[in-house]
Design brief:
The complex is a heterodimer. Chain A is mostly helical. Chain A contains 11 helices and no strands. The two termini of chain A are about 35 Å apart. By secondary structure, chain B is an alpha/beta fold. Chain B has 2 domains: about 220 residues, Rossmann fold, CATH 3.40.50; about 80 residues, Alpha-Beta Plaits, CATH 3.30.70. In chain B, the strands form 3 sheets. Chain B has a 6-stranded mixed beta sheet, with helices on both faces. A 4-stranded antiparallel beta sheet of chain B has the order 2-1-4-5, with helices on one face. In chain B, helix 3 crosses helix 4 and helix 4 crosses helix 5. Classes of the chains: A mainly alpha, B alpha/beta. The interface between A and B is large, with 40 and 44 residues.
Chain lengths: ~280, ~300
């Protein structure tokens, strides 16, 4: 036996751990065909919706266009609330549906491949995992917002919609939705941590939250009970749909505040669940 | 200071107690053979050491620190069941991802080094899903070796390995512990292979450690048996079977008598029954027989 060497234990700092994990997650994102498929879907869907709503019906009559302005494909004309019709949400908010499904697949792969087992036997902490996934998935959703913007604009122009808009409000609305991506990504990461052993359920939960069906359902009940829906607007669904074509700086601040609140709440809850339960 | 010191460890899955009051000590520089039947609690214990499942009670100390300490966790290499790799990525990419998780500064150099150790440098470009079972195990071992770990926890690492793979594994394990600070916990059902490398043993049953010993203690505790060949093997087997409680024929065609007896007594007995012994030797039972005996005692 050789001479015993001196034992050195170095605790990696939070930033070093997170940097390492982010590097891995971004590498995986860029090397996953699924990411590019979702980018394409995010571009095609608004273009298709614009084109289809201007097509003639079976009798040859021209249908009533869904939009009157190109930018309504990106954001609603006025702020929406949870009690509005679900069809009014058919704008850039759809990215959050695609994003939810993408997050489910991304995290599902972690568990299916056994990668989490490999990860959590290192110095990696559960909070690093939650944070890294939220950041990377938020980035993916921001990318989808960009391809959605491109697809929606081209589709709207080809469909002959008006381009008239308050540019400042439009930019703020787009930024607001992009900022909310972080909140949404945190919510989806949290949902996928809860249902990590049931891939189908995690996809379904992401879909129901992403489309807003659950929240609008809750809102309907709350309204029937004559209770205020403002809490739901603010904390559950409202802020991303508040970002509309008449947005101002306050809208952006609300989006930032709600996104940060969602991120903190869901990251803390997700970390707790991961710490208290079996990883693999 | 010991590499691993476990006291009164327990783990419950609902009403089922998988591990109960387990004590375990792995000294520094040891290759610790962790043995037990299927469902005895080996993998659960290993998963608790690795932080994959929370403990229900007791304590785990790794190099004197609590097992949840990030500093000590950074120095553990693990292969539990199968490596956690993305099937669509290459071996190299999977290795680099794990190096990233470990925040290894010179990752490429380190990955090349460990792939060479397990003779997988030529297959680094292969997609993980296209690797054979043995190759996947080698990748898992290479992954566990990343980042100069002080403690290796290997659960059934010999599964799917061919003769060359097993030899490499023995070399790697022997090399890992030679500086006297690093330790390995290795569980395997291939007890013959395990005996070639293990310096310490722990035998677990129904979630409890029933015996811990060094290789020397095992050797001293292993009783001898008499192996013999005669001109009439079938008749000899029948006759010996009538007189002794455990007589078995081994792969080399020898009859083994495990009971406490002497070669002279057996030769005389067979001679009186008209059988000449042509070859005879005495030998010690191996880990496998020792383990089987121990399990039978328990039953």
């Amino acid at each position: 036996m050789e001479t015993k060497r001196e034992l050195k234990f170095e605790s990696p700092s939070f930033s070093k751990r997170l940097k390492g994990m982010l590097g891995v997650d971004f590498y995986r994102l860029f090397h996953t065909p699924m990411f590019y498929i979702f980018l394409v879907i995010a571009a095609i869907i608004p273009a298709m919706v614009s084109a289809m709503t201007t097509m003639p019906d079976a009798n040859g009559n021209k249908m009533e266009p869904l939009y009157s302005n190109v930018w309504q494909i990106i954001a609603a004309s006025e702020p929406l609330y949870v009690v509005n019709s679900i069809a009014d949400y058919a704008n850039m908010n759809m990215v959050f549906i695609f994003g939810g499904i993408m997050v489910s697949i991304f995290i599902g792969h972690d568990y299916k491949s056994g990668y989490v087992k490999q990860l959590f036997t290192t110095h990696a902490k559960k909070q690093d995992y939650m944070m890294s996934k939220s950041i990377v998935c938020a980035f993916a959703m921001v990318c989808m917002c960009i391809t959605y913007l491109i697809g929606g604009t081209i589709g709207g122009v080809l469909a002959g919609y008006s381009l008239e808009v308050n540019v400042g409000s439009l930019i703020l609305a787009i930024l607001g939705k992009m900022i909310m991506s972080f909140g949404w990504a945190s919510l989806y990461t949290f949902l996928n941590i809860i249902f990590r052993k049931y891939f189908g359920v995690s996809i379904a939960s992401s879909f129901f939250f992403g489309t807003g069906i659950l929240i609008i359902g809750i809102a309907a009940i709350v309204e029937n009970l004559s209770l205020p829906t403002s809490f739901l607007n603010l904390f559950l669904y409202g802020s991303s749909v508040n970002a509309c074509l008449v947005s101002g700086i306050p809208t952006l601040l609300i989006c930032a505040a709600v996104s940060a609140a969602w991120a903190v709440i869901y990251n803390v809850l997700g970390t707790r669940i991961l710490s208290k339960s079996d990883v693999y | 200071m010991n590499a691993v010191e476990i006291k009164n460890l327990s783990k419950n899955f609902g009403a089922k107690q998988a591990v109960c009051g387990l004590n375990m000590t792995v000294p520094m520089g040891a290759v610790y053979g962790f043995i037990g039947e299927n469902g005895s609690g080996k993998s659960t214990t290993e998963k608790m050491i690795c932080g994959l499942i929370p403990v229900s009670g007791g304590s785990i100390k790794l190099y004197g620190k609590d097992y949840t300490d990030g500093a000590v966790r950074a120095r553990i290499g693990v292969l539990i069941e199968a490596p956690g790799c993305f099937p669509g990525l290459s071996v190299w990419d999977n290795m680099m991802l794990q190096a990233g998780n470990l925040s290894i500064p010179d990752a490429e150099k380190e990955v090349v080094k460990v792939l060479k150790l397990v003779r997988m440098e030529g297959a680094a470009g292969n997609k993980y899903k296209n690797c054979s079972l043995g190759m996947k195990q080698r990748v898992g071992i290479a992954m566990a070796l990343l980042g100069d770990p002080l403690l290796l926890v290997l659960d059934e690492p010999l599964n799917g390995l061919d003769a060359d793979g097993m030899r490499i594994m023995r070399e790697v394990l022997t090399d890992v512990v030679k500086d006297g600070t690093r330790s390995v916990i290795v569980s395997s059902h291939l007890l013959g292979e395990l005996q070639k490398v293990a310096t310490h043993y722990g035998i677990i049953r129904h979630g409890k450690m029933i015996r811990e010993m060094t290789a020397d203690e095992l050797d001293a505790g292993c009783r001898t048996y008499v192996a013999l060949r005669t001109g009439e093997m079938n008749k000899s087997k029948m006759l010996l079977g009538c007189r002794y409680s455990r007589v078995e024929e081994d792969e080399a065609g020898f009859l083994r008598v495990y009971d406490r007896t002497t070669p002279e007594e057996i030769v005389t007995y067979l001679y009186e029954n008209g059988i000449c012994v042509t070859e005879m030797r005495t030998d010690k039972i191996g880990l496998e027989e020792y383990y089987i005996d121990l399990m039978k005692e328990g039953k």
